[in-house]
Amino acid sequence: MREVAVIGIGMTKFGDRWESSLRDLAAEAGLLALKDAGVDHVDSIYVGNMAGGQFVGQEHLGSLVADYLGLTPVPATRIESACASGGIAFRQGFIEVASGLADLVLVIGVEKMTDVSADESTGILATAADQEYEALSGITFPGLYAMIATRHMHEYGTTIEQLSAVSVKNHRHASKNPNAQFPFPVTLEQVMQSAPVALPLRLLHCSPITDGAAAVVLCPADKARSYTPAPVKVIGSGQASDAIALHGRKHITTLAATVEAAKAAYKMAGIRPEDVDVAEVHDCFAIAEICITEDLGFVEKGKGGPAVADGLTDYGGKVVVNPSGGLKGKGHPVGATGVAQVCEIVEQLRGSAGERQVPNARIGLTQNMGGSGGSAVVHVFEVM
Amino acid sequence: MREVAVIGIGMTKFGDRWESSLRDLAAEAGLLALKDAGVDHVDSIYVGNMAGGQFVGQEHLGSLVADYLGLTPVPATRIESACASGGIAFRQGFIEVASGLADLVLVIGVEKMTDVSADESTGILATAADQEYEALSGITFPGLYAMIATRHMHEYGTTIEQLSAVSVKNHRHASKNPNAQFPFPVTLEQVMQSAPVALPLRLLHCSPITDGAAAVVLCPADKARSYTPAPVKVIGSGQASDAIALHGRKHITTLAATVEAAKAAYKMAGIRPEDVDVAEVHDCFAIAEICITEDLGFVEKGKGGPAVADGLTDYGGKVVVNPSGGLKGKGHPVGATGVAQVCEIVEQLRGSAGERQVPNARIGLTQNMGGSGGSAVVHVFEVM
Fold first, then answer.
1. Which of A84, A336, A344 has its CA nearest to residue A213?
2. Which residues, 6+ apart, have CB-to-CB distance to B49 below 8 Å?
3. Is there a contact between B80 and A60 if contact means CB atoms under 8 Å apart?
4. pTM of the model
5. With a cut of 0.95, is the ipTM above it?
6. CA of A64, closest CA in chain B: separation in Å?
7. Whole-angstrom Cα distance, residue A149 to residue A327?
8. What is the mean pLDDT of residues A350-377?
9. How far apart are CA A190 and CA B334, in angstroms?
10. Which residue of B has its CA nearest to A46?
11. Could you read off the pLDDT of B132-156 as tens digits, one per residue?
12. What residues of chain B lie within 8 A of the CB of A77, using their CB?
């Protein structure tokens, strides 16, 4: 396998993008990434998108995006793995460059969610849960994650203050991110008094409905410096699956797919969790970030709550988690999220993250997952 | 890149499978392919599916299928490219084995289409057309292909008898395929007198709505004989995109994505069109097979109509096209089709196709496309 590097990144402003259609958003991010990489052609395109068919009546997104970017007849493939669609699209791009079949690959993640009502959107997102056993029974994702949170509190003594600390941290980070949907801080009190959604989860424990896109350009690592002075190498990639229904899992407080994906990524990268300086992880709900910091091995199992409350996952701590603001603060256009995570880590490793810069960041990690954790993908990046 | 071989195949009966859900169908085909390959584990899974979200309210199909097959935590990725979803899923499996990341890959194509009405199904399929310019204006695929047919008749003098000869040939082939949805012959008169759908296309010029799944197992070619005495090597793979809207194309009677995908596949395989003994192609409508036989280079542009009427694409002709019965006779569960094509070609190259056997078949080809041709993927196979 050839080594692979990221040579270009681009993302749109996340939020209510009523003026832009799905194809507009994809093209906007794609063109920014091509410009950043300094290339006007690619050999292959991957599009990460969860539910274009349901949100805007458009499947067949690979060719649509290739056409709208003026890049036909380049092969273009759409990847879907619920909210992990972007991260897994990135992995497919990585595999294609690694294989030698393509030299330049453009990966775009995109979702256009606000053309339907919030109610409809929640129903569409629920098609990432087990339709026959979960969704048909009426449960949607806030309820599924509320069960995980309740059990985590029971098993490990995690508190509502600790859950709320995730949101406070990520909103603070988002306040320094001009592309964030919610670029403002919130207080612990505001989080804990926000409207109940599925208790213990309240509105400010939940990531929003968002329009947006993000894109990256990949190439073989040994050619990367001919495109950019600051390439970032992909040193590890891992992906795994788990039962998509909560009742099919051994422990609902452990995200087994994340554990396995991280194990594979760490092994390929030849690093340990403590080597990671900065990480973008899938905080679709506050409890998710707590489980993930445990399941990635950043902290001991059950200690994710105290860790975030004590600042161990913030600037000055062990590892900075979600400097972009995460899904909570930056927004969560589901198919775009995994690619946007890569954009942030590349900024951090380039040293171009401005006010959000993690000092001396050398090794970065992304963790993106689908549904309540039924699929997960982890990538590790290093300064070249 | 490592060389890749197919070591196992399996497919379900195609048709109205009211007793089986999407996951049942995927598991049925997957287990048959694993059994055929003689393996009980794989390193990676790809699931080709166009519209599980719209047809049965289920996205996130990679993990669902991995779980239902008892194969978690294996990475599992869903690929969508409208009706080319299966063929492109196969290509992703090919790339992953070629890259060296995985040794054993299971590729499953699946679609469950009969849980909604035929009207709804037609609307769902139309989300593979350009939603903003085609589908919203009310046109669906029979209408799009009717325009292609009308123009082909105008430019090349193609006749309704020639179009109908495609259906007669493919139904005759299907009559020898126990997995076919329509295992019976039809006469030229029956085709030409069938109910009008979008003239010149009548009911028997159109592929049906179908439930079904197909699966294959891939491994590195140099390990293939340790699994099976009759591996089939993948010697060429090509994929391309085109404008998904007809009005965006230079010529609507040339499927440019198919031309480009074939060029890439022939180049990788080091063969010419005339070297192909047997081909499974995407006859979603009769006119499509005529265009495809031209665009693959089997016959001169414009001569596809006379070729099928004269038997050049039948047993005893230049190349046997759609010995399985094709989409018209075998059925067209859209996400499954591209993988089912591979199953048939493997049977033919193994020499195990029974009554459908093409004598002395050494080189086989599959051509699978999405929408009205906006995406296309071509693979070339050879007896090892």
1. A336
2. B22, B61, B78, B79, B80, B85, B109, B110, B111, B335
3. yes
4. 0.98
5. yes
6. 6
7. 17
8. 98
9. 49
10. B79
11. 999 989 999 999 999 999 999 999 9
12. 79, 81, 88, 92, 239
